[in-house]
Amino acid sequence: MIKEKRKGLSLTASVYLLAVLACVLTFVFFPQKSVINKYMMKVTNEGLIYFIATLGLCVMLGMGGQVTFSTAGMMGIGAYSTAIATTRFGMATLPALLLSVVLGGLLSFVIGLALFRLKGSYFSFASIGFTTLLFTVFSNWMEVTGGPDGISRIPKLDLYFFQCGNYYDYFRVYFVVAILCFLIVLRMRRTSFGRSLASVRDDEIAASCLGINTYMTKVFSFVIAGVFACLAGAMYALHSNYISPEPFKYDQSAIYLIMVMLGGVDSTFGAFIGSMLLTILPENMRFLKSYYKLVYGVGVIILMVVMPMGIMGFVTMLKNKLRAYFKKRRADAFQDETEVAQDGGMLT
Amino acid sequence: MYVQLAITGVSMGMLYALMAMGLILIVKAVGVLNFAHGQLFMLGAYITWMLTYQVNLPVWGVALCGLVCFAICGAVYMFTCYWPLRKSPWKVTVIISTLGASIAIKELVRLIWGSIPLTMEPIIPGVIRIGTAYLSYQYLFIIVIGGGLMAGVYILFERSFIGKIMQATAQDRYAANLVGIPTGVAILCTYMISLSLSGIGGWLAAPLFLVSQSLGNLAQKAFAGIVLGGFGSVKGAIVGCILIGLIESFSIIITDSYKDAIVFLVLILVLIIRPTGIFGEKIAEKA
Lengths: 348, 287
Prior knowledge:
The complex is a heterodimer. By secondary structure, chain A is mostly helical. Chain A has 14 helices and no strands.
């Protein structure tokens, strides 16, 4: 059989092209007053921030299979260090943001070394402890964190060549940052680190037999998650200009986990869908009033029963089924053709 | 003062241990972390509050009806959050569904009983005088009941037929099925016992704290106790939880507001020095 050379773009290339086009269009036309109001813009920005935090979880949970509750705590580290550096020490916002990310990376390395001496469920328990510890410090260390009152008057983000004045400006900057982070995680899946992480998830003993240092692999995945969470936290502080300990609680970590599972645990794009849905949907569900959270909780259980691999997992399953169907049809058609040819051959 | 701190510490530890025992039983039976356990503990407090003040039952009636209610809750919980997901290849899906359940239970309680904390009279009112310190009888009552329950669970698991069934199911479900053990029933029993333990814990804790939705946060200490005690052993979890309670109550001497921070700091320090927990031994992993 001679393989037919397809004309024009292949399916993957056209998907990429469409994605780039969609991003550019979103960047140019979405943040306009006529398209979206100020409040919804703020909510969308928060969705982008949560997306960056869940990308870290995507690496930890989707690629590494480790359930961690440290995301909210690490976001708190990022937010508080940025806020303190800008308000107390008068640093410019960009260096403060970078400093807090570096700080978060170092801290999560040290904590990861300690926590990963535990395995599986016990690691999850200990990460809850870590988040609660941080929350206690945030809400009690009055002199530094301001206690329950939090820190206010955090300056707006200043990129030297671009000053963020309102939520529409913030969207442009955060959108670019989110795409960069997305590409980093997408690329990470194809590195040797990503593959060793996946092997640790699937079978830790087999992975160590192949010569993978499972302990350090897990620690590095924790560092990556910590860096993403810290970046998200710093962006959160600069975006809302005020922080209090409340959003960095253990309960919030559970919501990030649900975001990742909703979108599809094994998919980077799924994290985007999950975080956006869970941030924007509540705004449109106001009619449920006080029943909203109950519906939400029950919805999570039902989701896990119906779509255990999340929305993207569901899409992949559909795609595979369609592909198998078309393959079968093409194979049938090919068989008919050859049969006809053979018959023709025998006649002459 | 030290006697008082020790007694409050041990009784708080007993409350954590009741939760931790339930958690460990579920982890052993089905390998699932139950993140809704704190909320189930809170539900226990609310159910007993309802039975005492809305149905007006005497104490023994509350205990009896409460147990029945907890068992029913356990069955419902198992059939919603575990049974539909038992064949899922990813354990994480079950964990996430328990997270969903924790949100749902919290909201359900808020919708039924409101968000204003409710007060509950101690089961045995009055205070006892030890030296210069005054201590309410409730703390001693918790220690007695908690100890009794632990002994009861031990006897149930080690000496009774149903306990053997549950242990077999926990060790190897496939083999247990082959021998003819109804593993579904065994798992159901495990869930019922586990929820009854945490429900009773909620009943005991209700007079000390107010009956409110924040009772669920106590579960974090139970998690800490499990990690501190060692890997997967009920005995280790109990000792770990009592230690957590003692650390918590004695940390008042140093600081008041950083109570929780000290507990978790000690936990992380212990993990760095001895990652298997205090009583844990290195156990071979299942390949």
